[in-house]
Amino acid sequence: MSTTFSELGVPEWVTRELDKRGILEPFEIQERTIQDGLEGKDICGRAPTGSGKTLAFGIPLVVRTQASKPRKPQSLVLAPTRELAEQICNELRSFSGKRNVFVIYGGVGYGPQKKALAKGVDILVACPGRLEDLIEQNELDLGSVSQVVIDEADRMADMGFMPAVKRILDQTSNDRQTILFSATLDRDVGQLKKQYQRDPVLREVGEKTPDIKKATHTFSIANKSEKSKVAADAIKAVWPAIIFCRTRHGSDRLVKQLKRYGIDADSIHGGKSQNQRQRALKNFSSGKAQALVATDVAARGIHVDGVELVIHFDIPEDHKAYIHRSGRTARAGNQGIVFSIIQPDQKKTAKKMQTRLGIIDSIQKVHPDELTDLSSHSERREHTKPKPQGETTKSSNSGEKPANKKSHNSNRNQQSKKRSQNTNKKTRGKKSAPKNKKSNQKTSQKSHSNRNKKKSNQKTSQKSHSNGNKKKSVAKHNGSPNRKARRAHLQPANR
């Protein structure tokens, strides 16, 4: 029989909020850590990304946090990226009750953050850089912090945040509770555990190294000038896709190149403002963008379900980066494809990395078009693929019936055709606007001949009047009366 949150000691006011969201039973990492956290024990937890770590440390944090004074938070959560910090904050707010949760990070103005700290924040979620900036400006004091959570500790070390993390921990209360979560427990995380935790309980879930073998690993050899075309062909075969580049400039350049090939793409990296990053993630999550181009710095902050393709546009700097990148797909039991674009002079480096990762025997060399056959959802994607801007709907020559829903553009085109047909009927025989030089020449020739005909008609009518003929001569031109000829017979002849 499965364990419930109530059996783990979670208060009823928290379980009630979780029930509203359909969260009824704890995941494995939550079941193994929540009770220890509620008892105030230090925890060193290892679990893969997407395993439910936020609730594992969030529930004890919310329950144990007391009301805070202005600029003196009671609890602190450190995260390596803005996106991850934002997601943690939103998750905690969903069941925090009376406790005030706020997030601070760089890339946005200081004003709202200073105002919130002055009003009072109970649980503060922060990125190390902006947190230290505000501390230097005397906007907050960490002396009252009695609960600290360090999420994605291994990524903190990879990004060079470990010195800042240690400086921050040194400013918190000496009798604090320290909870540390990481996807891997390597040397840097081990040192942090040894220096800043007291008799921590070790809770591990899943394999020590993330199981990237659940995904299908592929690669293709391409020159530098051909890589963007190869990436575009891969995305056309399988999407949604996350593409990893090493630099910010390279990410933005690739987005422009992909758009030339008809791929809807957005980029996300440290050089973007927070609004731009959130907009890019929203477009990608909702399916408006087929691809999201990201740097390694932003890799840990991307938590989007249903990513079916990860592209290593620039090969990772080491095997750990390959693991973290590739972990964006084949999550929660789903399938996924990892596709590496390798330049000819990178073959040796890539082979060493593949050997260390244990995928040298299973990785496949493929053409981008072949990725469709490796994907289990290619048929679904073909029906939901958004059309690039400027692309119009074309009817197929096959015997299939067209879709019932017609695009707005096609309706507009049909309406314009009808209007043009009606206009042609009404204005038949009248002068039409010339479209090119040839049509201008033809039109001028016709009008010249028409004028000649009108003159001859006028002369004929005058002669008929002089002879006493009372018959009215009415000249016609393409079915419409010739007004000049009609007026001619009204003029007195042979004055």
Structural commentary:
By secondary structure, this protein is α/β, with parallel strands linked by helices. It has helices at 12-20, 28-38, 53-64, 82-93, 111-119, 128-136, 153-158, 162-170, 187-196, 227-237, 248-260, 274-286, 319-326, 347-357, 371-374, 378-384, 408-426, 437-466, 483-488, and strands at residues 43-46, 75-78, 101-104, 123-126, 147-150, 177-182, 201-204, 216-221, 241-245, 265-268, 291-295, 309-312, 337-342, 364-365, 476-477, 480-481. Mean pLDDT is 79; it is low at 377-384, 387-449, 451-481 and 483-495.
What's the layout of helices and strands?
Blueprint: H1 12-20, H2 28-38, E1 43-46, H3 53-64, E2 75-78, H4 82-93, E3 101-104, H5 111-119, E4 123-126, H6 128-136, E5 147-150, H7 153-158, H8 162-170, E6 177-182, H9 187-196, E7 201-204, E8 216-221, H10 227-237, E9 241-245, H11 248-260, E10 265-268, H12 274-286, E11 291-295, E12 309-312, H13 319-326, E13 337-342, H14 347-357, E14 364-365, H15 371-374, H16 378-384, H17 408-426, H18 437-466, E15 476-477, E16 480-481, H19 483-488
Parallel strand pairs: 1-6, 1-7, 2-4, 2-5, 3-4, 5-6, 8-13, 8-14, 9-11, 9-12, 10-11, 12-13
Antiparallel strand pairs: 15-16
